[in-house]
Amino acid sequence: MTHASNEIAGIPGVYGTPVDNHAPCTRHRVDHMGWITVCDVLEQGRADLMGLWADASEVHMALFVQSERIAVVSISVEGGEYPSVSRRHLPSLRLERAIADLFGHKPVGMPDPRPWLDHGRWPGKRRSTKPAQPYVFLPTKGEGVHQIPVGPVHAGIIEPGHFRFTANGETIVRLEERLGYTHKGVESLMEGADLDRGARICGRVCGDSTVAYAIAYARAAEAALGLEVPERAHALRGVMAELERIANHIGDIGAICNDAAFVLMLAHCGALRERTLRAADAAFGHRLMMDRVMPGGVRADLTPRGEDAIAELLIRFDAELPRLMELYDDTASIKERTSTTGILSADLARRFAAGGVVGRASGRDFDARRDLAYPPYDRLDFTVPQINSGDVNARVWLRFEELWQSISLIRQIVADLPPGPIACGIPTQIGEIREGCGVAEGFRGDVFVWLRLDTDTRILRCHPRDPSWFQWPLLEAAIEDNIVADFPICNKSFNCSYSGPDL
Predict the structure, then answer these.
(1) Which of 79, 442, 488, 490 is most buried, judged by most C-beta within 10 A?
(2) Contact 260/492 with Cβ under 8 angstroms?
(3) What is the pLDDT of residues 458-491, one digit of tens each?
(4) CA proximity to 314, closest of 357, 369, 271, 272
């Protein structure tokens, strides 16, 4: 494979066979050496890993390359094996473990072969043929070292997850997570579904990011089908996405402070979050705006009552947000808990391609709204806040700054809301198998969706990738050398999704 026309865009020196009908970028099939070369590109930091998934016969990888584009490469699984990506690029490890659980494909050279999603409780539904083995946490040796198991059942109304702390006194030496306790089989549920049902399932992968997931899914379907979405629909998606971001960021600020016993901040932030959800309900008919985004456009238009509710909400934020920022900054007890706590290094944030607040608070300057510009953001004026200190305090302040940006973005969109329809028609017959990928910036970071459709526009394969896949391992790194009592605020400052990586 040496013909120049088959060189993979943005990855010089890597060649593959282009696959027909993949949009908006080309997917290339590569051989063994091509796959290894792509892994080397990741290891050298010349591209970021956006996704790693599989089907019955191939393993696929999506990369964000320096030329500000996405590249998708695939390798055929021969004899049930393929060269491990994590052997050269560790951030792919849990994704490879999930592929082994879901499809039985063995990554040759993978440094950690333990299961990830498979807890040995999938009788009759497991695609993997290997028997389930007891899960063994990584050992830690040292004088006075002890383990503290937490979860998977927790005191709060949250999803299950097990945290295995190894500590020396109160100092955390190692944290290891175990997730996947409520495996939903999302990817299997989507197989054979029509586009509408697929949208509803994808919008429920992670409820607090339902708009982001729905937009990424819709963009993947629209790319595959070559649809031109009305401008008004793009604008309304932007309003929904920013309302979702506001609700989550203000809620997270309050929750972080609450974990440091600063309950007053939780009360104020909780009230603002509730006002945001009510405004969303008034504007789009659902507090979380679930099922409002679909392939081809949106289901709900912005009513005059909804526009008034959003305007009132933003005025409320104008008045209260500066006071909350001052309250946080002037309260020494909370700043002592958040400053220099849970530091994530810039190098790790870059290597793991950490998205959202987690990455930008540690100096990684990436935002899909800007760097993979898509409507309506490609015509809006906004900045991407960035802080370099990487501690809990930085993640709090970044949320404050992002709130201001979201407020500005909503005002820009509503002030110049395009007229016209809110959706376009969806074909039911396309005559050929088509594939597409889409990205949307959620409040945690970039959500990536890859989709394959049959000739009747039914889903053959869909893979939604949550940003938390790359953030959970970073929490393990950030908590080292902190005390056990500071884990709650570190954990909440990351606010990784339990549901998102549970496919």
Answers:
(1) 442
(2) no
(3) 999 999 999 999 999 999 999 999 999 999 999 9
(4) 272
